[in-house]
Write a structure and sequence with these properties.
The chain has 13 helices and 24 strands. The protein is of the alpha+beta class and 592 residues long. The protein folds into two domains: 458 residues, no CATH class; 64 residues, 2-Layer Sandwich (Dna Ligase, domain 1). Strands 2, 5, 19, 20, 23 and 24 form a six-stranded mixed sheet that branches. A hairpin with a 6-residue loop joins strand 11 and strand 12. Helix 3 packs across helix 11. It is globular, with a radius of gyration of 23 Å.
């Protein structure tokens, strides 16, 4: 992927940089041409503007400017954090006692957990063996030096992280750990098949509940549960998106339990963020640990921007031969602005704000120095209710007045379509296996985590009696906020949540406290087991459904913590999918 840096400052909304990354764009802004995957150009619109930031992964991108930067908690090797859920075996922290200058896997034991790299016997898993061997062969201190080099590189990139609502501290990078996750090719086949099946069913569900409502009439999913959801948008009733596709870009959160079985924890169908971390993580690994790519056959991830661009292009109306695609951002003060600018740059398209667009006679136009230019496809990173002040929030200054009318007429395509949030509601999540059976007549490949719906009287009774054992989540929250972690809660906290559940049962679900899989992670110069999850990214287009090989591995850096969200002190790792023997593209350090 390109050169020394993925990004240093925000991508100017007036920039045409990166156009050769995928295709040329008609020159109506700054007529520059730069190779793909180069550093982003300085902002020309907001001098002295903010840092490049990414939203808390798993947290919705707030549409309000954040009041100030916030630090990410530092890595802690031995302290458990109150309010973080622990499995009953998780009081033990199995680690390797090594010097500050020498790290190896010798003596590492996974304990009572499924470890992604090391088997219970202490031997590396077959697909991870080349990586483990490469690390064990490093000279003393080499891995630590490489880890430090990566951290310096990320700092120089200026890719920082902030949490809304906290005005103390400074922005910091999203912590990255050099020991990558390895997913075997057979396991990846299973995951990929399950994700494609799931997104197909979810898309059919969204189209159904806004149109024919067959699944509601059949009683497979309760009508009131769907139509009372805050994410069910009446203005979307009757909509017919191009090709019948609603969810174009999806991030699905996966976990593995103590036996290594894969479960779906959550679907993110509105504005899933974090894919720029995936590309960034691979880039810094290839620059700072290049020799492992010579021995480890890893599938590449660098083609994501081009796949995204081609998927967006095919959403344009048939009459448009060379469609104009733009990325719509709330602006540079949004927590995910770096990702918006990065993806626009890599696709070679314009990054725009709502004030750059205008609707006239049912068509969307972009204001340019050469006059209005027709826009055909909008990759929107603005929340549904801010998209059009004529239809949703009248006080929104982030969207475009008349946009929904142009969309309904078929004169512009939106990705993702508005209204998709109804399918990632945490209560609706419970019914996804039923959706798969109803629409596809198939059994789910990837199961859900067992979940209790507090709106059901029998479920509510069980949850209230076992609050000290369960994880309770609000239906509409994300990012690790608003949860009750039963095993680490106080009697007062449980009483408070019990009252919340009784007052608003529709808004709460509960799940057992699972023992997430773990991975060796460098903490204070030593290898410690830390819990992880995985967010793969799916592009669901009119002609093809493609899953980015790997995705974002998030790691809970605090000892014993199961909360991997970056907003709650988590970090990330590179995710390697082993290439199929004898065929398929392989990542090499030569293109770093």
């Amino acid at each position: 992927m390109g050169a020394d840096r993925l990004g240093s400052r925000p991508h100017s909304r007036r920039s045409g940089a990166g156009r050769n990354a995928v295709r040329p764009v008609a020159g109506n802004r700054l007529n520059r041409s730069t190779p793909p995957f180069r550093s982003l150009p300085p902002s020309t619109r907001h001098p002295g503007g903010g840092s490049n930031t990414l939203s808390p992964i798993g947290q919705a991108e707030s549409q309000y400017p954040r009041p100030g930067p916030t630090p990410v908690p530092s890595r802690e090797a031995s302290r458990s954090t109150p309010g973080v859920g622990l499995h009953r075996h998780q009081q033990r922290v199995i680690s390797v006692s090594v010097s500050q200058t020498s790290i190896s896997f010798e003596g590492y034991a996974p304990g009572n957990f499924f470890d992604e790299l090391i088997e219970a016997s202490g031997h590396p898993r077959p697909d991870a063996a080349p990586l483990v061997d490469a690390i064990n062969r490093l000279p003393d201190g080499d891995l630590i030096r490489r880890q430090a080099a990566i951290e310096r590189s990320l700092h120089r990139m200026g890719i920082t992280f902030a949490v809304y609502g906290d005005t103390s501290g400074t922005e910091k990078i999203f912590p990255f750990d050099i020991v990558p996750r390895v997913v075997g090719c057979m396991m990846w086949r299973h995951i990929e098949a399950g994700l494609k099946q799931r997104i197909k069913a979810l898309n059919l569900f969204i189209d159904d509940v806004y149109n024919a409502k067959e699944i509601l009439r059949e009683g497979i999913v309760p009508r009131d549960l769907v139509e009372q959801a805050s994410t069910y948008l009446q203005p979307c009733v009757g909509l017919k998106p191009p090709g019948g596709i609603w969810c174009h870009i999806t991030g699905t959160d996966l976990i593995r339990d103590a036996d290594g079985a894969v479960f779906v924890l959550e679907d993110n169908l509105r504005c899933p963020s974090g894919v720029s971390y995936v590309l960034q993580n691979r880039a810094v690994m290839k620059r700072n640990f290049p020799q492992v790519f010579a021995t480890c056959k890893v599938r590449p991830v660098s083609n994501y921007p081009s796949r995204l661009y081609e998927m967006l292009r095919e959403l344009a109306a048939d009459r448009v031969s060379d469609p104009t695609v733009v990325v719509l951002t709330p602006g540079m003060y949004n927590s995910a602005y770096y990702e918006h600018s990065f993806l626009a740059h890599q696709m070679g398209v314009e990054l725009v704000e709502g004030r750059d667009l205008v609707v006239k006679d049912g068509f969307v136009y972009m204001r340019t120095t050469e006059g209005p230019q027709r826009v055909d496809v909008i990759y929107r990173r603005v929340d549904d209710t801010f998209l059009d002040p004529k239809v949703f929030r009248s006080d929104s200054v982030l969207g475009v007045a008349g946009l929904m009318d142009a969309y309904r007429r078929g004169n512009v395509a939106l990705a993702n379509a508005p209204g998709t949030g109804v399918a990632d509601d945490k209560v609706v999540y419970v019914y996804v296996p039923d959706m798969i059976r109803f629409y596809l007549n198939e059994e789910p490949i990837l199961p859900n985590v067992p979940t209790y719906i507090c709106q059901r009287p029998e479920d509510q009774k069980y949850v209230l009696a076992h609050l000290d054992e369960l994880v309770v989540k609000p239906a509409g929250e994300s990012g690790g906020y608003g949860m009750l972690i039963g095993p680490h809660s106080t009697a007062e906290q449980r009483a408070e949540f019990a009252e919340k559940i009784r007052q608003d049962p529709r808004n709460f679900i509960a799940q057992p406290t699972l023992s997430l899989s773990r991975m060796p992670t460098i903490i204070d110069g030593e290898l410690h087991g830390r819990h992880v999850d995985l967010r793969p990214y799916i592009l669901h287009g009119i002609s093809d459904t493609w899953v980015l090989p790997g995705g974002l591995t998030r790691v809970a850096l605090r000892a014993g913590s199961l909360v991997v969200n970056s907003s709650q002190g988590g970090g990330s790792k590179d995710t390697w999918v082993a290439a199929e023997p004898g065929h398929g593209e392989v990542d090499t350090h030569a293109d770093a």
